Amino acid sequence: MKSPKILLSKVGLDGHDRGVKVIFRALQDAGIDVFYTGIRNTPKSIVETAIDKKVDIIGVSILSGAHLDLFPKIFQELSKRNAQNIVVIAGGIIPDKDRIILEDMGVELILGPGSETDQIVAFIKNNRG
Amino acid sequence: MKSKETDREYQSFDNYQSDESKLSEGLLYTQSDIKNFNPKEDLGYPGEYPFTRGVRENMYKGRLWTMRQYSGFASPEKSNQRYLHLLKQGQTGLSVAFDLPTQTGYDSDHDLAFGEVGRAGVPISSLLDMEILLEQIPLDQISISMTINSTACILLAMYIAVADKQGIKENNLRGTLQNDVLKEYISRGTYIFPPKSAMKITTDIFEYCSKNMPLWNSISIGGYHMREAGATASQELGFTFSNAISYVRAAVEAGLDIDDFAPRLSFFFACQNDFFEEICKFRAARRIWAKIMKNQFEAKSPKSWMMRFHCQTAGVTLTAQQPDNNIVRTTIQALAAVLGGTQSLHVNSRDEALALPTEQSAEISLRTQQIIAHESGVIDTVDPLGGSYFIESKTNQLEKEALEYIDRVENFGGAVNGIRNNFQSKEIESSAYLHQLDIESGRKIIVGVNKYNSLGDQEIQKDQINIEDNIRQIDRLKKIKLDRDSNLVKKTLEDLNFAVKNNHNVMPFLIECVKSYATLGEISDILRNNFGEYV
Do A14 and B356 touch (CB under 8 A)? Predict the structure, then answer.
C-alpha cells in the first residue's frame, strides 16, 4: 500500500502560519510524509511544487479572507497540468457559507478554528492509495 | 495591627511551604515566596524607576488609557466611515489596519494583490487613498496608530503629507507607527527586505521622528504577534526585548543619541487568558525595560526608561464555536490589561474567528472598555494588586524567565542572528504545538470547543467587502496615474533612488514621492531594487 504524501502551503500574502505549522508537526508525529512550503506562495507555485514533490494531497491554509479568489486558481493550475488527481484540502478562517462553495469546487476537507489534528491525520490515512 | 501572633503565623508559613505533600505547587503563596523582596528597589513608586507599578504617578486618575479599536477594511471610504462612527461612540484614538498588499508593498492592481485587496485591512496605493481615509478626522486632536511595518516609512510619509494639506504641522502629530520589522520575520510575515536593510529604514524613521515629530511614537515593538503564533508569556517578553535591544543598538550605531529617540519607543503586547500571569507580565515588562535602558544602554532620561505599551486581547483565544462567549473572554483579558497598567487598548470582537467584525460587534468591544473604565471601579487605585505574595512572586518569575530568553538570543549574537538561525520561530512553534496537544488531550479546557460544546449554526456573516469596492479602488489608481504630473513623479522617484544608493535618510525623499502621487508600489519597487527581497 502506497503511503500518501502531503504538501502543506500558505497561499497569497497571508502570514498567519500557526495553524499550518501545528498541522505540520502533528503529521510528522503521525509518521506521514509531509512538506511545508512556508508562507507567500502563488496558486501556480503551489501546484508546481506539488507535482515536483509527487504529492497526493495539497493542504492550503488561508486566514486572509481571499479563499474564494485563490482556491479557483489552484484548481485551474491543477487542471492545466492534468493533475486533478491531487486532492485539495483547506484550513483557516472560512465562514460556513463559503465552505459550501469551496466544497462544490472540489475541496475535500476544510479545517476551521477549533479543529483537532486527529481529523486531518484520519483523513490522510483514509486516502491511502 | 502587628502582633506576635502574626509573626508566628509567618514562620509557620515557611514550614507549611516546605511540606510539599500539603501544598500543590502554586496553590498558596506566602512571604517565603518573596524572601528577597525589596519594595523600594523592586517596585518603587508609580511613575518612578523601575516603573513596576506603572508609568505615571496617578495612572488612570490622571488619564485613562486610549480606547483604540483596530479597524480598516474594504476601501478608504468605508474605513473612514467606520472611524467616524467609532469616534462618535466615544473612541479616543484611531488604529488603522492596512490590507496585505499595502503591507507588502504592492498596489491594488498588482497580480499578487489579487483577492487580497481590502480583505485584512484598508487598501492604500496612493496619497489620494490616504486623503479619503482621513477625511474629516482632526489630525491635530486625534492620535492614530498605524499597523504597518515594511512599508511604514511610506505610510508615515503619506500621513505627514495629508496633515500638511490640512494645514497641520508634523510636530503636532500624535500617534504610533508599528515599524517593528524584526517580529515580521519571526511570526507575522509581512517582510519585504532583508533584515539589515529593513533595520536601516527603521533607524531612518527614528532619526526623522526624533528631529521633527516629538509627539510621535516612532516604533511599537511588539510581542503580540509572537504570542498569537504560540509564544508563552516569558517568550513573548524575552523575544520582544531582544528585538528592542537590536533596534536600540542599530540606532546608537547610526550615531543617534539614546535619549533623543528612546522616549518615543513604545511597545505592544497581547493579553491572553491567564488573568494573573498577564498582569504580572506587564509589571515585569516595565521593570525589565527600565533596567535595560538604565544599566545596559546608560540612558539618562527617565523617559527613556519608561516602558509604555498598547495592548490587544488575544485573537487566538476567540472561538468560532458559540461566538458570544468571546465577549466574556475579551472582558477578562481587557481587565487584566488595565490592572497591568496599559496605555492603550484594543478589545477583540466576538465574531473575529469567523470574519471581520461587524459594526455592532466593534461597538460591543468599545463598550467593554468603557464599562471597565467607568463602572468597575478598578481605575480608582494604582496597581491595586501590588504587594500580593502571588503577584510579586509571579512578576519576579516572569522577569527571570524573560531574561533567560534574552540571554539565549544574545548568545546567537542578537535578534537578527537568532532569526537567521530560526531560533525564535522554532521556540514559538514548539510552544504552539504543546498548547494544541494540551487542548486535544483535554488538559486545557476551551469552553464550547473541547468541552460544553453544543451544536448550532454559525450566524450568517454579512459580507462587508464586495467586488464594487475593489473595482472602485483600482479605477481610482488608474485615474491618479493619468492625472498626476508624470515628470514630477519620475523626478521624485529618481531622487529617492539616489538617496537610497547614497545612504541618506529616506524620509524627506519619501514625503516628496508621495506628494507627487507616486504610488506605494512604485516606491516599494525602488526600495526592492536597491535592498533586494527576503525569502
Answer: no
Q: What is the pLDDT of residue A30?
A: 95
| Predicted model pTM | 0.94
Q: Do A21 and B100 touch (CB under 8 A)?
A: no
Which one of B320, B321, B440 has the shortest CB-CB distance to A116? B440
- Segment holding A107, helix H or strand E: strand A107-111
B184 with A70: Cβ contact below 8 A: no
Domain count, chain B: 1
* Mean pLDDT to the nearest integer, B330-337: 98
Cα nearest neighbour of A29 on chain B: B433
Cβ contacts (< 8 Å) between A42 and chain B: which residues?
A: 112
Instruction: Answer whether A93 sits within 8 Å of B103, measured CB to CB.
Output: no
Span B228-257, average pLDDT: 97
**Residues contacting residue A92 through CB under 8 Å, at least 6 positions apart:** A16, A19, A61, A62, A63, A67, A111, A112
Domain assignment of residue B308, given as a range: 39-441
DSSP 3-state assignment of B266? Answer: strand
Least confident of A93-97, B217-221, B337-341, B426-430: A93-97
Q: How far is B431 from chain A (nearest CA, A)?
A: 10
What cell was used for B282?
506587564
Domains of chain A in sequence order: 5-126 (3.40.50.280)
How far is Cα B32 from Cα B480, in angstroms, rounded to an integer?
Answer: 69
pLDDT in tens, B68-95: 999 999 999 999 999 999 999 999 899 9
Which of A25, A95, A97 has the CB atom closest to B433's CB atom?
A: A25
User: Listing from the earlier edge strand, what are the strands of the sheet with B143-147?
Assistant: B70-71, B93-97, B143-147, B175-177, B216-217
User: Is B532 among the domain residues?
Assistant: no
Confidence of residue B463 (pLDDT cuts 50, 70, 90): low
For B2-54, the pLDDT digits (tens) are 444 444 444 444 444 444 444 567 899 999 999 989 999 999 999 999 999 99
**Chain B residues within 8 A of A13 when measuring between CB atoms:** 100-101, 103-104, 106, 112-113, 116, 190
Spell out the alpha helix ranges (H) of chain A: 18-29, 43-52, 67-80, 96-105, 117-126
Note the pLDDT of residue B387: 96
Please tell me the distance from the alpha carbon of residue A124 to that of residue A4, in angstroms, as a whole number.
7
Nearest to B449 among A26, A69, A114 (CB): A114
Q: Confirm if A8 and A20 have CB atoms less than 8 A apart.
A: yes
Task: Give residue B17's pLDDT.
Answer: 46
Three-state DSSP class for residue B481: helix
CATH of the domain at B130: 3.20.20.240
CB B176 within 8 A of CB B146: yes
**Set of cell numbers at residue B23:** 501544598
Q: Using the CB atoms, write b or e for B477-495: b if 16+ within 10 Å.
A: beebbeebeeeebeebbee
Distance CA(B275)–CA(B186), nearest Å, equals 26
B186 assigned to some structural domain? yes
Alpha-carbon gap: B386 to the closest alpha carbon of chain A (Å): 35
B436 contacts on A by Cβ (under 8 Å)? 22, 26, 117
Quick check: is B359 in a domain?
Answer: yes
Residue at B406 is within a domain: yes
Unique residue bearing C-alpha cell 462587508: B464
Give residue B485's region: left, alpha or beta (phi > 0; psi -120 to 50): beta
